[in-house]
Amino acid sequence: MKTTKPKQISRVYTRNNLDEKIKEPTLKILSQVLANLIDLSLITKQAHWNMRGSNFIAVHEMLDTFRTAIITHLDNVAERSVQIGGTALGSVQGVAANSQLKEYPSDIYDVQDHLVELADRYAVVANHLRSMIDDIKDPISGDIIQGALEDLDQYLWFLEANIDKQH
Ligand SMILES: [Fe+2]
Predict the structure, then answer these.
(1) 85: CA distance to ligand 1 center in Å?
(2) pLDDT tens across 34-86, in order?
(3) So what's the pLDDT on residue 133?
(4) Residue 4 burial (CB < 10 Å; 0-12/13-18/19+)?
(5) d(CA 90, ligand 1 centre) in Å
(6) Domain 21-161, CATH
(7) What values do phi and psi take at 84, rounded to 5?
(8) How far away, in angstroms, is 159 Cα from ligand 1 center?
């Protein structure tokens, strides 16, 4: 059983000479983004598998396209962390401790219920990325964040546009 929170990001030596004053805060941001994106990729499959009802096949297939893109983005985030001397945390224990998302319900089935729960969480991740754009001083990490945000804003729109009763 887990008794401790995952460690802070361990650092490793690199010849990459990005200013230390930029590296440290960038790693913090990337670490948060990584946990959020892994969580989002997992719950997207949770919904993909368990949803039922009208419009099932369209939403079911749409979610797989989201997940494929999210995995590409989170891989970019993890690998940028390592390039600048960080350690990428990809275990479920690390993600559970670090993700900003509230737990995804395991007792919902209706397509519409899943769309609402997903939209709530896609919004958290997208809005967090947006809030970080001005803070990130490493331009390469900034491009990665920007790319993830472009897709997540679009996916949030797709989710919301599939919700029958807007709320
Ligand atoms: Fe599938």
Answers:
(1) 35
(2) 999 999 999 999 999 999 999 999 999 999 999 999 999 999 999 999 999 99
(3) 95
(4) exposed
(5) 22
(6) 1.20.1260.10
(7) -100, 20
(8) 18
